[in-house]
Amino acid sequence: MKSFDDNFYQQHCEAELRFVLKTIETFVSNNKHIEITTLLIPDFNDDKKNISNIVNYISSLSKDIPLHFSKYYPNYKFNIPSTQENILYQAYDLAKERLNYVYVGNIVDEKYNSTFCPQCKKKIISRMGYNTKIIGLTKSKCSFCGNEIKIII
């Protein structure tokens, strides 16, 4: 999901938001695993209103859908400054208020890459770069509080 603004999709993707939303809703209604990633691009889709709309939409479907906010870096045909990490952290904090599984991508930061139990808030899967370690998960339950964790291992 690149944005929650149809103008963004039309101008930058030659697409329509409604088709993205329909695809997400189809996966959810058919009980299929889905994770959503939003590449936050400075001054294009990184404002609080857009992020809030994305979070509100996803949480209206399920608070257990994982949401990843990824850092933008200048590349081939798009050469604006990269996403500031404080914007990613603000998006993460906003999303954690409504969603159980939120991550920040394209940065190496154990706190923002790891999985925490939605109930007791303890770290259950530690991620640092490509290194992953299960530290508080027994089958599909939090080892600390017994809460069922909606995760595929």
Strand order across the largest sheet: 1-2-3
Structural class: alpha/beta
What number is the mean pLDDT?
A: 95
Give the CA-based shape: globular
Percent strand: 15-25%
Number of helices: 5
Please give the share of residues in helix.
25-40%
| Sheet of most strands | 3 strands, parallel
What is the strand tally? 8
What's the SSE pattern?
HHEHEHEHEEEEE
Care to give the gist of this entry?
Helix content is 33%, strand content 20%. By secondary structure, the protein is α/β, with parallel strands linked by helices. The mean pLDDT is 95.
Descriptive report:
The protein has helices at 6-13, 17-29, 48-61, 85-96, 110-113; strands at 36-40, 67-71, 102-105, 115-116, 123-128, 131-134, 137-138, 141-142. The chain is of the alpha/beta class. It is globular and about 45 Å long.
List the helices and strands and how they pair.
Layout: H1 6-13, H2 17-29, E1 36-40, H3 48-61, E2 67-71, H4 85-96, E3 102-105, H5 110-113, E4 115-116, E5 123-128, E6 131-134, E7 137-138, E8 141-142
Parallel strand pairs: 1-2, 2-3
Antiparallel strand pairs: 4-5, 5-6, 7-8
List the main descriptive attributes of the protein structure presented here.
single chain; about 150 residues; alpha/beta; 3-stranded parallel beta sheet; 5 helices; 8 strands; globular
